[in-house]
């Protein structure tokens, strides 16, 4: 390096630099950053800053204090945040004296963690996205308000009906975590299944194949023309369950999924699981999966599917909005339930589908104005807000109906039809909500992704998943839930 | 006299040291405390659980996998990056054909190359990772298109293949860092007196010999600093893993690293206490690394 530093006593320049570098090294690990979000203030509303009760009336059944400010945090993801702003405008109209503070963000966790730790959370949160706060932990640490008050209040449009009775089946139950209290209200309603393009199927003179044999035949036909049967989000293989789990339920009945959710011993060793896994593995074996799929992320796989490189894609109903830019105008997007593996022996009929609530809204227990938070949700569950949501983001809401008089885009229309066809045969596996790590990185990436890339056989994948599930069941640091 | 000198230095350092203590040291101490608790990160209600987190860590296969990957990165990344950096810098400064009036010169156009090598350094690592994610796309990515164009039939899944994924990550980190070291080493080399090279050439040394006998020894301090910084990169590697890899962290944990594992535990699973224990483990790995580098790097210094 440069010129000599001379033979001075004490600290030479290079020594200083070197020591500084050594000190700098020590600061690298992120360990410091964690502690920095320190546990400052205390929990609870000991200082009595919570808003009081307003006057209960027909227009204000939750007795919101009219002038209390409302603090809303919305996940600004696939659905944007405009729908919430519109609902806030309605809130403001009902309570002109209330100041509304709206925050839209993708960083729910990083923004709100300090506020929860400090005991000053907002009044209502759309706790969604990749950086959502762990729901189980919030419940276990008693951070949330019981939304039964909201569910038992008169609904926005029809005071003779409770909010609870206007919701789609299963939505209210989803918000419970093993007790009577409802901690979460899922606002969007998502239909999961096998997504396809009616136009692209028509190129092979085909309709959606209702049996697995027809599915294989169609894939073979497509393969000959250089089109793959299936693709999926290979980098996020936990998209596969969107069609695989209802397929398992269809073959072996919903109780198979219940046992899986409950982490019961040998739940994955059920013959229905094996049958479903083997069917999917056959797609790989026969070369029906788009080449390179294991390296595609969800957007890339959707784009390949939009371009007609593959016919089928396991996904959820947000795909229509998410892939808007790459979807050809005449694509005629549609969703279907899993095909019958064996029409006569499957426990549930064709049409059995996975549908459940999405966009989990919560009201923190220590919020300043929890009643206001619930009132906003009540407004959002009204017909006006619902229609606004459906129109602007093309997804259903948890309000049962609300679509009359609207012209829906093709994918959403198909969701409606599929739900109607499913009738009562709607399953809702909870493993993904209850045990995120198990579902996403262990079952999804660690086993299903490996199997569909041909690196594990179905038997190996099942043993691996069973081992993961057993580990989770034994892990005392993970809170457990059960179907009741 | 010495005493007064230290007091003089300390006088200047009080403020920065105080800031350092408040914003760096104190969170560290706090974190070490949290690693003995069951803190969720979502509520200030926590319990001291003693060594539970560390006991769990000891039996956590994924944690050990992550440690393994970090150690591998720690060995490979500095070696490859610095090796390439030295090679390129040598070519740019000394590797060219001999010209008139100069004993040594770089290859033709070396000043342009210097700028080009530095380009990746200008891009944020997030952008680099995103760009490479496209390049690695098995269907339409640049890499496989290139393979197709030159007539290779293999279509590797790159990030989708557990045997390749970590190497893909390493390659990106090398690519984005090597330019900086080319420039750093170039600066170092240009200050090596030309007469040394002249003398060596007169004695009939070839390029390899000049490199190992003259350039490298005289550059040793710079290389060592580079080694420390690349070590830091290797221990971190969070951004590339988080943005690029399958899962992320996959496929099948093949790209799991400590920093990313810490992040998932703290921010996805609501186990901040356990995550801080992972952080403390990372701290220990870092200290060991720093110790080894300082020890190995101690060499007699050449003054010139």
Automatic annotation (TrEMBL), chain A:
Assigned GO CC terms: cell envelope
Chain spans, region Disordered: 39-60
Tagged with keyword Transport: yes
One Pfam family linked to the record: SBP_bac_8
Keywords of the record: Signal, Transport
Intracellular or extracellular location(s): Cell envelope
Family label: Belongs to the bacterial solute-binding protein 1 family.
Cited PANTHER family: ARABINOSE-BINDING PROTEIN-RELATED, SN-GLYCEROL-3-PHOSPHATE-BINDING PERIPLASMIC PROTEIN UGPB
Protein name: Carbohydrate ABC transporter, N-acetylglucosamine/diacetylchitobiose-binding protein
Species of provenance: Streptomyces mashuensis
Automatic annotation (TrEMBL), chain B:
GO cellular component: plasma membrane
Cellular compartments annotated: Cell membrane
Species this protein is from: Streptomyces mashuensis
Listed InterPro entries: ABC_transporter_permease, MetI-like, MetI-like_sf
Domain ABC transmembrane type-1: 67-293
Protein name: Sugar ABC transporter permease
UniProt keywords, alphabetically: Cell membrane, Membrane, Transmembrane, Transmembrane helix, Transport
Record-level GO BP terms: transmembrane transport
């Amino acid at each position: 390096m440069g010129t000599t530093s001379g033979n001075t006593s004490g600290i030479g320049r290079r020594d200083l630099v070197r020591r500084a570098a050594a000190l700098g090294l020590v600061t690298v690990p992120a360990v410091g950053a964690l502690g920095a979000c320190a546990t400052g203030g205390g929990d609870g509303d000991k200082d009595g800053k919570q808003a009081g009760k307003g006057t209960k009336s027909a227009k204000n059944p939750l007795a919101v204090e009219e002038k209390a400010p409302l603090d809303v945090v919305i996940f600004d993801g696939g659905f944007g945040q405009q729908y919430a702003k519109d609902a806030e405008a309605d809130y403001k109209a009902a309570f002109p004296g209330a100041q509304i503070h709206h925050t839209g963000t993708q960083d729910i966790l990083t923004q709100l963690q300090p506020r929860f730790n400090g005991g000053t959370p907002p009044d209502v949160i759309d706790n969604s996205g990749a950086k959502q706060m762990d729901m189980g932990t919030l419940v276990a640490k008693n951070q949330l308000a019981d939304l039964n008050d909201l569910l038992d209040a008169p609904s926005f449009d029809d005071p003779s009906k409770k909010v609870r009775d206007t919701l789609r089946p299963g939505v209210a139950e989803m918000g419970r975590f093993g007790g009577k209290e409802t901690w979460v209200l899922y606002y969007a309603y998502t239909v999961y299944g096998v997504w396809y393009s009616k136009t692209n199927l028509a190129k092979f003179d085909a309709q959606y194949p209702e049996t697995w044999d027809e599915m294989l035949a169609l894939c073979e036909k497509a393969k000959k023309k250089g089109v793959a049967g299936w693709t999926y989000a290979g980098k996020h293989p936990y998209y596969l369950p969107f069609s695989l789990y209802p397929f398992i339920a269809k073959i072996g009945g919903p109780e198979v999924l219940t046992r899986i959710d409950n982490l019961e011993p040998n739940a994955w060793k059920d013959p229905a699981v094996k049958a479903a896994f083997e069917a999917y593995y056959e797609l790989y074996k026969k070369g029906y999966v788009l080449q390179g799929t294991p390296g595609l992320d969800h957007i890339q796989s959707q784009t390949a599917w939009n371009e007609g490189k593959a016919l089928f894609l396991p996904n959820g109903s947000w795909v229509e909005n998410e892939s808007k830019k790459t979807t050809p105008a005449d694509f005629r997007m549609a969703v279907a339930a899993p095909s019958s593996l064996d029409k006569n022996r499957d426990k549930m009929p064709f049409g059995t589908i996975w549908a459940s609530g999405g966009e989990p809204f919560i009201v923190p227990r220590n919020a300043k104005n929890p009643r206001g938070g619930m009132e906003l949700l009540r407004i959002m569950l009204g017909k006006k807000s619902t229609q606004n949501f459906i129109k602007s983001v093309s997804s259903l809401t948890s309000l049962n109906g609300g679509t009359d008089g609207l012209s829906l885009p093709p994918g959403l229309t198909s969701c409606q039809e599929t739900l109607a066809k499913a009738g009562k045969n709607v399953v809702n596996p909870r493993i993904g909500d209850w045990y995120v790590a198990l579902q996403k990185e262990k079952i999804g990436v660690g086993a299903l992704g490996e199997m569909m890339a041909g690196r594990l056989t179905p038997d190996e994948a099942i043993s691996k998943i069973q081992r993961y599930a057993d580990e989770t069941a034994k892990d005392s640091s993970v809170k457990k839930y059960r179907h009741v | 006299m010495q005493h007064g000198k230290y007091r003089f230095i300390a006088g200047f350092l009080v403020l920065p040291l105080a800031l350092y203590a408040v914003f760096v040291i104190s969170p560290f101490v706090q974190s070490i405390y949290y690693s003995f608790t069951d803190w969720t990160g979502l509520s200030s209600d926590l319990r001291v659980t003693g060594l539970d987190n560390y006991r769990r860590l000891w039996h956590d296969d994924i944690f050990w996998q992550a440690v393994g990957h970090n150690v591998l990165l720690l060995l490979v990344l500095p070696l490859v990056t610095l090796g390439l950096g030295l090679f390129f810098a040598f070519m740019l400064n000394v590797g060219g054909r001999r010209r008139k009036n100069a004993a040594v010169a770089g290859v033709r156009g070396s000043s342009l190359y210097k700028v080009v090598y530095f380009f990746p350094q200008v891009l944020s690592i997030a952008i680099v990772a995103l760009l490479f994610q496209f390049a690695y796309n098995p269907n339409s990515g640049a890499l496989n298109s290139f393979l197709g164009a030159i007539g290779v039939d293999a279509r590797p899944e790159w990030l989708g293949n557990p045997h390749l994924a970590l190497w893909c990550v390493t390659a990106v980190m090398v690519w984005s860092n090597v330019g900086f070291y080319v420039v750093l080493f170039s600066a170092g080399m240009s200050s090596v007196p030309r007469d040394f090279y002249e003398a060596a050439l007169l004695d009939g040394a070839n390029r390899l010999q000049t490199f190992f006998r003259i350039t490298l020894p005289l550059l040793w301090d710079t290389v060592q600093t580079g080694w420390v910084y690349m070590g830091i990169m290797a221990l971190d590697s969070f951004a590339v893993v988080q943005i690029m890899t399958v899962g992320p962290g996959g496929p099948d944990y093949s790209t799991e690293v400590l920093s990313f594992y810490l992040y998932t535990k703290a921010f996805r699973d609501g186990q901040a206490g356990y995550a801080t224990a992972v952080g403390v483990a990372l701290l220990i790995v870092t200290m060991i690394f720093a110790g080894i580098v300082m020890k190995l790097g101690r060499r007699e210094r050449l003054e010139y």
